[in-house]
Design brief:
The protein is built from 4 helices and 5 strands; from the N terminus they run αβββαβααβ. By secondary structure, the protein is of the alpha/beta class.
Length: 164
């Protein structure tokens, strides 16, 4: 950990991201994913109210916090399933809808035809328009604060970030 206990070094960030990615991508913990608590939550941000999923193992334990950033299709069942696999390995996982300023979850329709630019580009541009660097940084700070306030998050463990 760096000298500032609230910041990760690039090396730590990369290591945590890779570990989370491997866990989310493999089905090794899929059986344990059924024993997770999956809750819809709202996070107050400078940009409004962000809906999110908060997923953690059942029980009264405390686990390191992880933020799972979604792909262009947003907060949908596939992302919840990935979060459950991470949680099954001992994490509290927050999956925010980064498009909350323009659309409710999930974001883009899953049946979007990528071969039709006239359909894809306007929709993708619509949901991504509000994702400025400043907005993403501000939201990320609010996500970390939200996770840090949760009783099931181990405050002494390093938090991780994973982007799909």
């Amino acid at each position: 950990m760096t000298d500032d206990s609230n910041k990760l070094s690039r090396r730590e960030f990369t290591a945590l991201s890779l570990a989370a990615g491997v866990t989310a991508a493999t089905g090794a913990s899929a059986a344990g994913a059924a024993d997770m608590v999956d809750t819809d939550v709202e996070i107050k941000t400078a940009g409004g109210t962000c809906e999110a999923a908060l997923i953690h193992p059942k029980g009264k334990g405390q686990w390191p916090g992880v933020i799972l950033f979604v792909d262009v299709f947003g907060l949908r069942q596939t992302m919840r399933d990935m979060a459950k696999r991470l949680a099954a390995n001992g994490y509290t996982v927050l999956v925010p809808n980064p498009y909350y300023r323009t659309t409710k979850a999930p974001g883009l329709p899953i049946n979007l035809d990528f071969k039709k630019p006239e359909d894809l580009l306007p929709r993708r541009s619509m949901v991504r328009a509000s994702l400025t660097d400043e907005a993403v940084m501000s939201d990320s700070t609010d996500y970390v604060k939200f996770l840090d306030a949760q009783t099931m998050v181990n405050k002494k463990a390093k938090m991780g970030v994973f982007g799909y």
